[in-house]
Amino acid sequence: MVSAEEAVFDYICPFLGCLIASTLFAAPINDLRKSLRERTLGSLNPNPWAILTGNCLGWCSYAYYTNDPFILASNLPGLVLSFWLNMGAAKLQYLAQVDAAIANRFDKTTEPATTGTTLQENIKESLIYSPQDVLFLRVVIIWSSVLVCVGWLGYFQGHETQAIGVMVNINMIFFYAAPLETMKTVIDTKCSDSIHSPTITLNCVNAAFWFLYGVARRDIVVWGPNSLGLCLGISQVALCLWYPKSGRQEGGGEMEFEPVSTLDADPDDSDDEPEGIHPIPVTL
C-alpha cells in the first residue's frame, strides 16, 4: 500500500516535473520562430541551448542505467527539441556574419585590408563556422566520448551510474551557469531584456519539483544540481523584478530585412552603397 507521502514525492512530483520540463524546453520556440522571421537573434542568448543538448542526453543516459522512466520522459523531448533550437540559432548567426561581410565590403570607411578579395570570398569565409555550431559540437563530442567509455569500453564497469551521475552534475552546473553572463549584463545595463522570463520562471518550478523528487529518493545526483538551479533561477527572477524590461520584444528587434540581390555586384563599379543591404551585428 502506497502512503500519501510516497504518492506525492515518488509519483506526483516527478509526473508534474515531466510536464513542466517539457513546457520549459518548449518555452523558447515562439521567440526563436519570431527571430527567424525577423532574421536576427536580438537579445536571445542561444548558449544554454547547446548545453541543453548535453544535459538532456546525460539525463537520458542516467535514466537508462537507473531504470527511471520519469527522468527519461522528462528529458527525451528536450533532447530532440534542442537540436532544432541549435540549428535555428546557427542559421541566424550565419546570416548575421554574411550580412556583416556584405556591409563591410561596401562600407566606404573600411580599411584597404580587404583589397583583392571578392565579395564571394568574404561570404564563403563567414560560412566556415558559427559560435553555436562550435559549442554544440563540443558538447556532443564530450558526451559521445563519455558514453563510449562507460557503455562500450567498460572503463567504469560496475560504477556506470556513478560515472554518468558525475558527468550529468558537471553538465548541469554549466547549464545553470550559462545565464551568469546574462545576469552580469542585466546588472551593468540595469535592464532585464536579455533574460527570457518564461524560461526562467519554468526553470524555477521545474527545479523545485525535481529537487523534491531527488530528496524523496535520496538521490544526490537528482536533488544536488536542481537545488543549485533553483537558487540561480530565483536570483534571475529577482533581477527581473529589480531591473524591469524596457518593453522591447525578447525575440529580436524591430528591423526588417530585404533580400540581398547584389551578391555578384562589383563594389568598384559604383560609389554608392547598393540598395537592399541591411547589415545586422554578428552574434558571438
UniProtKB/TrEMBL annotation:
Membrane topology per record: Multi-pass membrane protein
Claim: Nucleus is one of the keywords in the record: no
Parts of the chain that traverse the membrane: 12-29, 135-155, 161-178, 199-216, 222-243
Annotated localization: Cell membrane; Golgi apparatus membrane
Xref: InterPro entries: SWEET (IPR047664), SWEET_rpt (IPR004316)
Domain of life of the native organism: Eukaryota
Acidic residues: bias regions: 265-274
Protein family according to the UniProt entry: Belongs to the SWEET sugar transporter family.
Name of the protein: Sugar transporter SWEET1
